[in-house]
Amino acid sequence: MSHSLKVVGESQKRMYGPRGILVCGFSSDERKAILKMFNNKKFKNLPVIFTANEDKMELMKDMIKRAHQTGLDSKCRMERAIIMSGLTEKEFHRTMSAYKKLKLPKPLWATLTPTSENWTVDALISELSSERLHLEK
Question: What residue spans define the domains of the chain?
Answer without folding.
Answer: 20-136
